[in-house]
């Protein structure tokens, strides 16, 4: 069944009436409304695009309509560089957007997960409380998996349900389906997981080659990368210059999407399965479920998704497998929605790291002469995507600074903690905290201003990176100058140093910190060429539909793609639609990760739009490229759909994955942030007063959405810097797993932000766009550390810089 | 505890539900009345995604037993619009980018509507204070604050 796309323009009042009665919107009456209303576009509200979750509709005999509306300010054909209102905006502000837990099919059961309460040991079995009423409860274990008991990602080490060994606390062992949520949770509480416990390994520094406590493979090493650059790279000790060395540590961080993880699995009338839920990568789920089910009779549909940040990159594959197993066993739809405490305790987090930097520096000029860096990342109990985090970490390890002799060694090891995974930045925030703190250490050691030191070392065009890439674009100096200029203009900020102890209630010291980061856009090396991301475009009637597996998780994909296509096709926005992200109808555009969606997939959309014009010209037998879309359309003799597929064109990057040499990324983003803050000298609290950033985005396709991403990422990093601490209990599980005690910033914690969009177009991106989703999380934390240092003299080299740590540090000064 | 009949007004319409009196108001709204605009983000009154107005005052509906709203007037995000016109703060969120993933948006809009009913030209500081009970992870709050500050309340309700 194809998804119906709108033809007409229901008026605002009609749509609101539809919405008020939205509990039952029979498919037939919606279609009738749509076909009747061919009203002219009014200048405020244009068209409504309906998404029908057809598989669910078929199962239920009803339809659930998600109303996505966009506002277009008149029929302009230039849709790039404008703050066009987001397409799904109206649905979101009216509460109409459907997230997975908003959908409730008839006959639906509720799922829950039985988990290990210890970190390591031999799984002996399950013990059900015989006094409990199990009559309406379904239990599934590893035996109920129809296909393979593996969560397919990079290696086959992680089971869907544990069956012989437990390798981390909260590891899933069994699944429950019950008629209500309360019964599901109650049933979980009446099952014990029996484990013959063994002493767990939590310390990453004793993990590699630890034969007494093996967790992964034969040596506990998920990934080891060694990157050498320069003819004397291995002779660090013999290099000239002043030795400056330091250790930097960062802890776990939780993505804390405001919507918890959730999946609804429903049987399809044809015997297959539909997965509907909160996710970033529908095709990752397809790939994983094919192995778990042992067949390909499934489709995956993305619901409106309440935040991801990487936390919904790979984890939904596990959750989908769980919901699928329950749905298959019961023959009914099963909704598996995590409660917040479970989500915090069981799902992936940002990798903690211990990072040792040794550098040789010219003490007079401040120039970096050599670097020897050892990174140790803790991947938790299973591989997930950890090798790629290791990779991105090692490539970015020196920050945006030139250095002729470089030896970088990055080790990713296993511990008996819940597996860590993707989180915005993906290795870069960790190493860039270290690199920037190390620059501050160098500055302190040689007596140079930290900003001046950076200025002297920042990459220039033509400089060579540690992977041997010659930079054709180096925006570090420009973003530094622009951010500093804006900061000076707003508040020249005479520093208030240590006010006197008598009198005022709050003793505060103010400081300003500056940090700079670079971030490679898209997948590393030949990653994009291997992915071959695809986008289809089709002409249906007088409209164009874009089919892409890339999802909108808040960043604005569903607004950007139509803007790109409509601009190239010369069409008003309301004539370009996005098809729902249902793997039955959209191709695999690659995952929604890695700062690639606007730049790489948007580029495929642009290419597809051009290809569509070619196909239209061919359809009416002309080569006249001066004819507009509508000229060509009017010449058509048929109404048949024209559909084409565009595939990512290899940018021709030269990359050797064995030596880690070559063009690591097609282009880089650059960002400088200036953070002003006060330190409360008695409580150790850090109070942010302002954040100014200048970020090179190539081209801001939609400045409002672009700035929104940069601001959101920056605030997450301020949380990383001073309030977000994951505390582990004796079993290696998160003990502060509630929002009461895992602290993310509120409106009162967040500073006012000024965001300067710097545009140095990247000619490989649509209209010059670079990827920008992750870079804002790379910069703030070290700027905060520098500001604390400026304000108080306290040097902190570890995240998070909680009030307790600041207070202890101030007392020790 | 046996079920009770609880009556209240939801967005101007009378409702009558028969539920256990300790059922969370959030669940009654979402499951019994299918008003799914209010969201659950934490279940512990920290995130504000479940914010609704009870007799004009904002509460975390995940912490309110439904028995407590007997006879009350409840406003959820679905009730902010009037006569098919969006509430000015909804318009402002659209214009100024106040919503990204949208999951926190209903709670913010309800809390903002409460503020704007009392103070139709709030300063950024007042806005931050009024919205401190709502968590957002996407926006960094800047565009949410901008949206509320720039809301044009003149002529509302129409």
Descriptive overview:
Chain A has 813 residues and is α+β, with helices and mostly antiparallel strands. Helix content of chain A is 27%, strand content 23%. Chain A contains 19 helices and 27 strands. Chain A has a seven-stranded mixed beta sheet with strand order 5-7-3-14-11-12-13, sandwiched between helices. A five-stranded mixed beta sheet of chain A has the order 9-17-16-15-10, covered by helices on one side. A four-stranded mixed beta sheet of chain A has the order 18-25-26-27. In chain A, helix 14 (557-569) runs parallel beside helix 15 (597-619) and helix 17 (703-722) packs across helix 18. Chain B has helices spanning 25-32, 88-96, 105-118, 124-130, 142-149; strands at residues 4-10, 13-19, 51-54, 57-60, 73-75. Chain B has five helices and five strands; from the N terminus they run ββαβββαααα. The N and C termini of chain B lie far apart (44 Å). In chain B, strands 2-1-5-3-4 form a five-stranded mixed beta sheet, sandwiched between helices. The longest helix of chain B has 14 residues, at 105-118. In chain B, helix 2 (88-96) crosses helix 5.
């Amino acid at each position: 069944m194809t998804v119906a796309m709108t033809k007409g323009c229901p008026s605002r009042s009609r749509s609101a009436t539809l919405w008020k009665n939205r509990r039952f919107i029979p498919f037939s009456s919606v279609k009738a409304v749509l076909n009747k209303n061919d009203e002219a576009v009014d200048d405020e509200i244009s068209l409504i695009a309906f998404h029908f979750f057809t598989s669910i509709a078929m199962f239920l005999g009803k339809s659930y309509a998600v109303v996505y509306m966009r506002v277009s300010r008149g029929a302009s054909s230039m849709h790039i560089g404008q703050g066009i209102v987001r397409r799904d905006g109206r649905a979101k502000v009216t509460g109409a957007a459907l997230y997975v837990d908003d959908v409730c099919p008839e006959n639906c059961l509720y799922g829950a997960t039985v988990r290990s309460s210890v970190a390591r040991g031999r799984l002996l079995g399950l013990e059900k409380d015989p006094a409990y009423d199990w009559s309406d409860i379904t239990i599934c274990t590893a035996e109920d998996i129809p296909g393979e008991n593996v969560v397919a990602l990079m290696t086959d080490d992680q089971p869907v349900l544990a069956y012989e060994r437990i390798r981390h606390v909260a590891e899933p062992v069994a699944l429950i389906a019950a008629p209500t949520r309360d019964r599901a949770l109650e049933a979980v509480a009446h099952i014990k997981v029996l484990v013959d416990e063994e002493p767990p390994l939590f310390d990453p520094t004793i993990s590699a080659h630890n034969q007494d406590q093996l967790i992964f493979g034969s040596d506990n090493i998920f990934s080891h990368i060694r990157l050498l650059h320069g003819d004397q790279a291995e002779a660090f000790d013999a290099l000239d210059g002043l030795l400056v060395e330091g250790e930097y540590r960062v802890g776990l961080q939780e993505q804390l999407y405001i919507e918890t993880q959730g999946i609804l699995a429903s049987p399809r009338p044809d015997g297959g399965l539909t997965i509907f839920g909160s996710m970033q990568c529908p095709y990752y789920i397809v790939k994983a479920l094919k192995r778990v089910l042992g067949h390909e009779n499934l489709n995956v549909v993305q619901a409106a998704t309440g935040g991801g940040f990487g936390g919904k990159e790979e984890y939904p594959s596990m959750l989908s497998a769980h919901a699928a197993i329950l749905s298959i066993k019961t023959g009914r739809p099963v909704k598996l929605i995590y409660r917040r405490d479970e989500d915090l305790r069981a799902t992936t987090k940002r990798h903690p790291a211990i990072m040792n930097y040794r550098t040789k520096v010219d003490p007079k000029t401040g120039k970096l002469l050599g670097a020897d860096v050892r990174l140790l990342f803790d991947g938790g109990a299973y591989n997930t995507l950890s090798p790629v985090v290791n990779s991105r970490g090692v490539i970015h390890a020196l920050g945006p600074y030139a250095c002729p002799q470089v030896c970088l060694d990055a080790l990713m090891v296993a511990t008996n903690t819940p597996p860590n995974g993707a989180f915005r930045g993906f290795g870069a925030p960790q190493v860039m905290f270290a690199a920037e703190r190390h620059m501050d250490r160098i500055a302190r050691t040689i007596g140079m201003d930290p900003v001046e030191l950076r200025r002297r070392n920042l990459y220039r065009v033509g400089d060579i990176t540690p992977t041997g890439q010659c930079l054709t674009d180096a925006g570090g100096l420009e973003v530094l100058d622009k951010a500093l200029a804006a900061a000076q203009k707003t508040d020249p900020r005479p520093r208030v140093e240590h006010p006197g102890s008598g009198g005022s209630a709050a003793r505060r010291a103010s400081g300003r910190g500056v940090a700079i980061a670079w971030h490679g856009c898209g997948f590393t090396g030949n990653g994009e060429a291997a992915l071959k991301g695809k986008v289809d475009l089709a002409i249906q009637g007088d409209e164009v539909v874009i089919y892409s597996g890339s999802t909108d998780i808040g960043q604005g994909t569903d607004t950007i793609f139509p803007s790109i296509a409509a601009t190239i096709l010369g069409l008003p926005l309301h004539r370009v639609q996005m098809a729902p992200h249902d793997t039955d109808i959209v191709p695999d555009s690659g995952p929604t990760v890695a700062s690639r969606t606007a730049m790489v997939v948007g580029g495929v959309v642009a290419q597809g739009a051009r290809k569509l014009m070619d196909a239209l010209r061919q359809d009416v037998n002309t080569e006249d490229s001066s004819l507009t879309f509508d000229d060509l359309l009017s010449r058509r003799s048929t109404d048949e759909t024209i559909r084409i597929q565009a595939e990512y064109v290899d940018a021709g990057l030269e990359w050797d994955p064995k030596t880690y040499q070559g063009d690591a990324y097609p282009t880089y983003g650059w960002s400088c942030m200036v953070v002003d803050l006060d330190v409360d000298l008695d409580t150790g609290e850090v109070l942010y007063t302002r954040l100014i950033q200048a970020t090179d985005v190539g081209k801001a396709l939609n400045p409002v959405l672009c700035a929104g991403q940069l601001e959101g990422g920056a605030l997450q990093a301020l949380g990383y810097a001073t309030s977000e601490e994951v505390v582990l209990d004796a079993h290696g599980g998160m003990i502060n797993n509630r929002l009461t005690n895992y602290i993310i910033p509120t409106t009162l914690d967040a500073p006012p932000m000024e965001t300067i969009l710097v545009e140095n177009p990247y000619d490989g991106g649509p209209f010059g766009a670079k990827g920008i989703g992750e870079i804002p999380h790379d910069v703030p934390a070290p700027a905060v550390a520098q500001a604390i240092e400026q304000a108080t003299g306290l040097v902190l080299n570890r995240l998070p810089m909680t009030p307790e740590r600041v207070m202890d540090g101030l007392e020790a000064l | 505890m046996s079920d009770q009949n609880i009556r209240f007004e939801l967005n101007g319409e009378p409702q009558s539900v028969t539920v256990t009196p300790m059922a969370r108001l959030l669940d009654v709204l979402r499951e019994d009345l299918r008003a799914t605009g209010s969201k659950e983000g934490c279940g512990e009154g920290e995130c504000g995604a479940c914010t609704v107005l009870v007799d004009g005052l904002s509460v975390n509906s995940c912490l309110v037993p439904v028995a407590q709203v007997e006879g009350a007037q409840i406003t959820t995000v679905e009730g902010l619009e009037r006569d098919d016109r969006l509430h000015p703060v909804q318009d402002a969120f659209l214009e100024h980018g106040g919503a990204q993933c949208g999951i926190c948006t209903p709670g913010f809009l309800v809390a903002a509507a409460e503020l704007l009913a009392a103070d139709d030209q709030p300063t950024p500081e007042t806005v931050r204070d009024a919205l401190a009970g709502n968590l957002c992870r996407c926006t960094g709050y800047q565009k949410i604050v901008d949206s509320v500050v720039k809301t044009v309340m003149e002529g509302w309700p129409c």
